[in-house]
Input
Amino acid sequence: MLPGAMFGRLFAMTAAMPSPAPASTAPTAAAGAVNASKIYGTGDAEVKALDDVTVSFETGKFTAIMGPSGSGKSTLLHCLAGLDTLTSGATYIGDKYLAKLSDKDLTELRRTDIGFVFQAFNLIPTLTAEENIKLPMMLGGETGDTAWIDQVVTAVKLQGRLQHRPSELSGGQQQRVAVARALASRPKIIFADEPTGNLDSETGAEILDFMRRAVREFGQTIVMVTHDPGAASYADRVVFVGDGKIVGELNNPTADQIIDQMKQHGS
Amino acid sequence: MSFSSTALLARKSIRARLGRTISIALMMTAGVSFVVGSFVLADSLRATFTGLFDELVSEVDLEVRAAEVFDGDSNRDPIDATIADGLQGIEGIEIIEPSLARFAQLLDQDGDVVATTGGPALGFSYIGEGGLQGVTLKDGRAPSGADEVVVDKASADRVGYSVGDTVNYLTDTGTHSATLVGTIGAADSDGFLGASVVAVDIPTAIEKFGSGGKVDAIDIGLADGADATAVQTAIENVLPPRTEVVTGEVLAAEGQSEVDGFISVFGTGLLIFAFITTFIVAFIINNIFQITIGQRLRELALLRAVGASAKQVRRMIVAEAFVLGLIATALGILGGIGVSRFIVWAFNQAGAGFPDTSTVLEPRTFVAAAVVGIGVTMLSVFVPARRASTIPPVAAMRPELGFDALKKQQLIIGAVVTAVGSLLLIIGLFVQPGSAALWATVAGLGALTLFLGVASVSSTIAPPVTRAIGWPIAKLFKVPGVLARDNVVRAPRRTSSSASALMIGVALVSASAVFASSLRATITDVLDNAITADYIVTDPNFFGLSPAVAEGLDALPELDAVTPIRQASGQVDGESKSIGAINPDAFDKLVDPDLQDGAIAGLGPNEVLIHSDPANDLDKQVGDTIDIVWQSGAQSTLTVAGIYGDATFGNWLISLDTLDAVSDAPARDLFIIAKLADGVTAAEGDAAVAAATAEFPQANVQTNAEFRKSQEDQINQLLLTITILLLMSIIIAVLGIAITLALGVFERTREIGLLRAVGMNRRQLRRSVRWEAVIVSSFGAVVGIVLGTFLGVIASLAVPDDVISKLAFNPVIIVVVMVFAVVAGLAASLYPSFKASNMDVLEAIATE
Output
């Protein structure tokens, strides 16, 4: 068996144990960036998307990254998730520095340790909802923890929709499938990129509420990029990004606090 | 490891894109069918002909025939019929059957020639049932004596002869009348592969066919229990010199190799076209996969993001292609059987008279089908699959990054490939290393490589060329025209790859056209300058004309000069050469062979004229001598009397008298050329020539103009056949453009919705898609014509000067091809333009 797959199994076993209450956990970093810089283009066309960013994200916490468009928040997320590479500095997931990993190891990491929820086009159009949910496990040649997957499916209220293709599902249902997929393999961390950006506020609230429950009840770690203060208010902590730098943060914020903070940063 | 997930993804993808899957599989099926059909047809024909031949000689245990002094290219000399008498009394021989086959023309009730259905007019000896020939008596009995004859049942049925009728037939000795006592056929069939056959007993054949007391061979059947080797030795002891006795197995093997030679030429010809079709199909499949991978970019990136490895993505694409290849192979085998049946049918419609063939499926055929079906499909997706695996996962959110990964500079690679292809082609055609098969393969590979290179380079030239082609369309059709042009120009890579398949088809047609035009120009040139003959007499039966025809013409006062051209094999320095015999004085008046030294007229009995090539090779000047060994065993030392430069009549020429002195073969004239005397009008000449040849219906008299026309007709026929065989490729190429266009329309759904939303009507939209197709197909045609003309020119240059010495171009064909390209574009746009104009505007805009 592959080391990665074995790791996945071990992880699944530990995660299956009753989760301790998040509040009692000593704050340990699930992921983070150290002196991370990302520069696009050269010469006059040079753009510093990330400028010497150092930040960490605690295990079992729901963190929101906020900032105006072009602030570098999405780039930060992509680099944290190993989807994009840094110009200098480092990002890590758990105890793994991503820059040191080969494409093969990065793939392995994405499959076992990371879950993704994107703004749109989250699902493979040719696969059913169930197949989409199980896809990361299938790619690793595993069946996954059936009981856990059932629990997740029930939680996102997708029981009757499992055999539907994405085109037969509403936008909210599609996003719920995406969240279920992200949770299904019990990753160390879930990265969400504007997960409610394409949804109406009610459906968006449902998704966000579910994400918060996943953190509170299952001890899941989630990092979410958003520009919506309402969405960010579901998070335990909000990190503000501007011009490629961390410009501030709030713990257990309300929407109003977030709006105030945003005004401070001039966005 | 995770094969199941790859398989699942591939299966789902195939099912979700069923239309595309089916169209790719069907195109591939067409290619595989063609390949399988070529193999099946060749194998089936080989089995049939071999079976037929085996049956013909199966009863023959031994055969006495003329021994060849060297391997010549003409038939064996006949032998004295009296040799059979010497064999009487040898112990172990049961049947002695001399055989003789010559020209004999069956005449119908009105005394007119019975036209054959593709074969020659043949006469042979027949001793009836119990004989050694594989001839079956269908009706009546065997002929006996000078007044009895049998004919093939197919001809008898066609003309309406029945047993008991009086039948007339014509041979070299004149017209003969006999009673029809029976009908015959080869083995199980009613006829002899389309020939008309007149058969008589052996003494009658020797007399009436005018063989001069000779027969072709003597077949021997052994008594039960006789020792073949002992009998063979006994026969050898009584045989005169220059005769030999061989076993039935040797005859069967020789027949087999002749059949093989014919079949492999035929089969290889078909295979070449089959591979061209497959090559074009591969191009289109590659193109379709390339485009769909662009369309599936986000999906593939998403797979990477959720944990699929690059290898898994690549494997998924390859698995999809594998399934397609598998389907195509299975369907292609069935289709191939159909294709082979169709080709037999088509040839028979044209009068080829193929016998009923059973369908032979050799294991090799299945291997070829799989190699082509699966192999070519996999090869076509090799690059697209590699590309797909380079899509970074981040493209799931930022597709523009993914498109960057798909774009790669290919101009340099394309140019290198083009150069390598041209080089191989030129080495193959001009240097001609090794055997014919080797250099043809090198040249073929060169042409394929050249096509790949040009297809790749053409994306660089696409923008300016398509802009130019689109200019009048944009002027004429305003907004739809401008959109059409811009859509073509903005995607040069797609334009060039979808036009490439058509480009190859057009290039091959254009190359054939240049080659044919040059061939025609050369023939015209020869007829205009080198040959001043007014009449050309040929023999469609391939037996050669009786010398009496030329003698009759020579006696006419209306003709100034008449010479037959006879052919023999001679051995010079151990090599077999084809040597022509002529009447030198007449030849001198009729032909200008570009004499470089010496004289033609007055060519003496021990003199020879040679072409400058052998003169140079052998280092001979006028006055030098050359030793020649003849098939009769005779040896001559000939003095070079002249050296000439035009090889139309071959490299070696001697006088008829010289040949007569050394040849045992019956004198047969390959053809005759003649020229009117001064002051004789064409009408007078025509009448005189017609009268002189009236008794020889086998002599096909043509005036210079008629001969030229028949030569041109043959060339046109050849060009037409090639074009028809290329048609399949061209249709597939047009289909390829249609599919690419449909994919393009699908890709631009949102854009099209936007255009409709801001006020473009359905008609304008259809028009825009239609002209886009026309620009793409015209681009393919333009590049194809340029490339094809280049190929045609170098192929024409590579051919020896006696075949092609002039280059010619046919502007009509270029115009026809361009018109065809426009029509093809219009046809290709039918479905995509319908699809585009029927799109729901709101849905289209909402599409991501």
User: Anything to note?
Assistant: Chain A touches chain B through 32 residues (CB under 8 Å). The CA atoms of residues 150 and 265 of chain A lie 43 Å apart. Confidence is low (pLDDT under 50) at residues 1-27 of chain A. The two ends of chain A are 50 Å apart (CA to CA).
